[in-house]
Amino acid sequence: MPLVTPLSADHDLETKELAEFFNETLGFCPNSVLTMQRRPAISKAFINLNKAVMANEGRVTSALKRMIAWVSSNSTGCRYCQAHAIRAAERYGAEQEQLDNIWEYRTHPAFSDAERAALDFSLAASQVPNAVDEDIKKRLYEHWDEGEIVEMLGVISLFGYLNRWNDSMGTSIEDGAVESGEQYLGKHGWEKGKHV
């Protein structure tokens, strides 16, 4: 049972209009946003930040951003965000082989060295204590420019917020996210956990 009950999608019309963004991303408005709208300034600010972070300004693709989000969420253990991130990666064109082998991104041939550097950055930046070091920096600069690194850290930071929000709230997970979680992550033990 969630800590705070989500409100109806019609509760705040400005949030509802902004949240249409998630229909493309996930196919539904997340329960996390429906909970945030108990304070509409938070839900609106979150959606606008999400849109800004997920906009493509360079070579960091939408699919890679969602895989960065998955690695971050996997690192922190948020099952809600793990399922959402893998679902969004699928909807934004991640290769089937990458989706099927996301757990093995470090060694699987479906991932390039540039993608591995980005995903290792996500893992290091999501840990407590933070593990970003000179090696991570060196590998990033071999493949990405500073604007793209800012985009990546934007995703990692956004999901830091979401991981804390959804794991603390015990946000109820939506059916579509459950389907994606079971399909791509279930073979490695993913389950809804407290997000029922």
Question: The CATH topology of the largest domain is what?
Answer: AhpD-like
How many structural domains does the protein architecture include?
2
Question: Unreliable runs, pLDDT <50, ≥5 residues?
Answer: none
Range of strand content: under 5%
CATH homologous superfamily identity of the largest domain = AhpD-like
Shape: globular
Order of helices and strands: HHHHHHHHHHH
The total beta strand count reads 0
* Annotated CATH architecture of the largest domain: Up-down Bundle
How many whole angstroms does the radius of gyration measure? 16 Å
Q: Structural class, judged by helices and strands?
A: mainly alpha
End-to-end CA span? 7 Å
Helix content: 55-70%
CATH class descriptor of the largest domain? Mainly Alpha
Major sheet details: none
